[in-house]
Structure to design on (344 residues):
């Protein structure tokens, strides 16, 4: 029974069936032929073009083509990304599946890291806040299930994963969260108080990125994994520094806390904080990326081009420097700027 059931969840036709229910169809069209240049009267080769057609009256077409939270996300995403390049199961075939994304088509599919991330973020947020703030647990649970389900189904809709990829991603995250949940407070306190935190938070993720499982072809998986680990690294150092200098905000009063009301003033302050913060982060990315690329390329005596950026010794250092800076600035520098501008 299981020997039949599990392979059936890998069947791309199951994904294609879900896409058709959503109004997404694959069409194979003969776009014409050309005459043989030698004049032998033989018909030319016909080219097959794949198109997607959402069900909108058939008229439109498009060519297919905080501590616990970020720590949990870091663990889940690294294991998920690395598992892809160890297991090496391909993404569903097209045809019959409609592929709406092409950038990550060179990546392997098992497990779905989008399903893992959505499940980890939703349920980590729920578990970390349910005793801290007053709100309906039932509504929080429904919101968590809804978010993780929608993201998981979106991976089927875009044709990027099989049903088995998505299910395994959710189950793997559930196991990891179950194993680590008893230690969340311990790990959170440790990373805020230990004098070794900055060193561990930088060196360990960098080595994990540099020693990412190698492939026989280039895939954006290593670069994406480096970005995830680098942001978490920068955030960890930022949180640690905030705690050391007494900049960590803690609400006063007995638990659980009341959830603040969303007033027009609160909404405007949030928008202002966002605009200030995102401007600083965009500038940080531009400056650090430019400098780090120049330094790394000069160190290895290679030109700064797209091919060089795919090399291990170039890609990992420049992306780690860029995105760890973004994580640090977002958690340590931007809040200080908000405080200076009286946006807190």
């Amino acid at each position: 029974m299981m020997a039949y059931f599990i392979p059936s969840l890998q069947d791309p036709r199951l994904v294609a069936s879900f896409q058709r229910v959503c109004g997404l169809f694959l069409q194979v069209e003969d776009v014409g032929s050309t005459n043989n240049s030698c004049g032998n009267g033989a018909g030319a080769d016909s080219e097959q073009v794949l198109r997607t057609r959402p069900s909108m009256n058939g008229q439109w077409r498009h060519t297919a083509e905080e501590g616990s939270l970020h720590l949990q996300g870091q663990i889940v995403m690294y294991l998920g990304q690395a598992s892809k390049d160890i297991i090496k199961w391909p993404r569903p075939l097209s045809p019959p599946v409609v592929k709406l994304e092409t950038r990550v088509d060179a990546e392997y599919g098992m497990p779905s890291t989008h399903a893992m991330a959505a499940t980890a973020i939703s349920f980590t947020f729920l578990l970390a806040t349910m005793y801290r703030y007053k709100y309906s647990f039932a509504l929080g649970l429904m919101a968590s299930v809804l978010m993780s389900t929608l993201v998981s189904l979106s991976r089927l809709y875009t044709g990027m994963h099989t049903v088995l990829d998505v299910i395994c991603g959710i189950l793997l995250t559930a196991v990891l969260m179950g194993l680590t949940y008893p230690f969340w407070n311990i790990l959170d306190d440790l990373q805020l108080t230990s004098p070794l935190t900055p060193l561990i938070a930088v060196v360990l993720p960098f080595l994990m990125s540099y020693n990412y499982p190698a492939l026989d072809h280039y895939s954006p998986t290593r670069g994406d994994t480096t970005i995830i680990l680098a942001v978490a690294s920068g955030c960890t150092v930022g949180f640690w520094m905030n705690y050391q200098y007494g900049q960590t905000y803690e609400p006063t009063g007995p638990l659980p806390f009341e959830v603040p009301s969303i007033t027009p003033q609160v909404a405007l302050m949030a928008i202002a904080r966002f605009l200030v913060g995102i401007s600083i982060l965009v500038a940080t990315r531009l400056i650090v990326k430019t400098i780090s690329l120049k330094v790394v390329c000069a160190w290895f005596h290679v030109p700064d081009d797209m091919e060089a950026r795919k090399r291990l010794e170039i890609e990992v250092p420049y992306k780690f420097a860029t995105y760890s800076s973004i994580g640090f600035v977002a958690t340590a520098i931007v809040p200080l700027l908000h405080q200076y501008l009286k946006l807190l």
Remarks:
- The radius of gyration is 24 Å.
- The first strand starts at residue 24 and ends at 30.
- The beta strands are 24-30, 48-54, 62-63.
- The chain has two domains: 66-93+102-193, 194-243+263-344.
